[in-house]
Structure to design on (303 residues):
């Protein structure tokens, strides 16, 4: 039987894809920073409503955060902002597929940070599973680029690739920090309430931080974001649902395992492109899908 964190992770991956698609629809009206800001600013009311609903529904008081919570929450929130910036920088290069593929090293890097910060280690089977899913993700990323066919192998190690690796490291650090922040709260609160409180605290911090940045560097962007409020509400709703699911899953299980299972979103996206748009699937992509599926299966069965 699947543990609860597995279906919650799949819900997170689904709404993350929905949020990304909605963000793309408004990128023509906003800068990259503005489109990123939308997910935070418009996600705040939904995150707060979710927290209030849990407090009332569960009839429990709000958790009392300590120094560890604020340390991990602040580190995670800042790391996620920097990770997003690094990913945007990576995809601005000609080898954007390489940068994106390298950013998906997040589960492996989350395993490293999980061990360094929280003392959480992975077993041999989980280690093999993480490497298999990593190989599958990189194969999917490179399959639709012309890097290998054109012989531009130097693109595998250019600034875009390095930015992609940095993005994966920062996303992995953020995931581990969010788990650390949630686990630092009193265990009597329950995983859902702890995750919701962590999400609400982090997203408010991120919104304030990016608001200050845009006010100083792109003052006109705040007005453009306000004009896009209708689409922004949908982005915020899907983003809050995705984040709430990620945070809850990572309160129940290691961030490395959660993010590895979350890689199934790439398989779903590829399947959708074949089913709805009749786009062909290359042998390398089939091998990548197989590697991801086997890796995810090993992680689920091993837990």
């Amino acid at each position: 039987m699947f543990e609860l964190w597995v279906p919650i992770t799949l819900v997170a991956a689904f709404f993350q894809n929905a949020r990304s698609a909605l963000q793309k629809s408004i990128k023509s009206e906003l800068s990259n920073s503005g489109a990123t800001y939308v997910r935070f600013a418009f996600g705040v009311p939904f995150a707060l409503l979710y927290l209030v609903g849990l407090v009332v529904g569960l009839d429990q008081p709000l958790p009392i955060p300590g120094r560890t919570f604020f340390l991990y929450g602040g580190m995670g929130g800042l790391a996620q902002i920097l990770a997003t910036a690094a990913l945007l920088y990576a995809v601005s290069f000609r080898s954007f597929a390489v940068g994106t593929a390298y950013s998906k090293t997040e589960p492996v890097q989350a395993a490293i940070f999980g061990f360094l910060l929280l003392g959480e280690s992975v077993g041999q089977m989980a280690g093999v599973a993480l490497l298999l899913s990593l190989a599958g993700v990189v194969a999917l990323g490179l399959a639709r680029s012309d890097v290998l066919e054109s012989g531009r192998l130097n693109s595998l190690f250019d600034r875009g690739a390095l930015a992609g690796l940095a993005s994966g490291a920062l996303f992995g650090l953020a995931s581990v920090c969010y788990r650390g922040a949630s686990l630092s709260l009193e265990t009597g609160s329950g995983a859902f309430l702890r995750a919701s409180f962590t999400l609400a605290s982090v997203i408010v911090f991120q919104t304030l931080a990016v608001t200050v940045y845009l006010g100083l560097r792109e003052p006109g962007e705040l007005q453009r974001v306000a004009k896009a409020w209708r689409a922004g509400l949908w982005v915020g709703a899907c983003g809050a649902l995705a984040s709430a699911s990620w945070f809850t899953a990572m309160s129940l299980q290691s961030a490395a395992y959660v993010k590895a299972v979350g890689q199934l979103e790439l398989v779903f996206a590829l399947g959708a492109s074949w089913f709805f748009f009749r786009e062909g699937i290359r042998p390398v992509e089939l091998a990548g899908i197989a590697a991801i599926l086997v890796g995810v299966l090993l992680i689920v069965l091993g837990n």
About this structure: Residues 5-302 form one domain. DSSP finds 15 helices and no strands in the chain. The two ends are 10 Å apart (CA to CA). The chain has a mean pLDDT of 82.
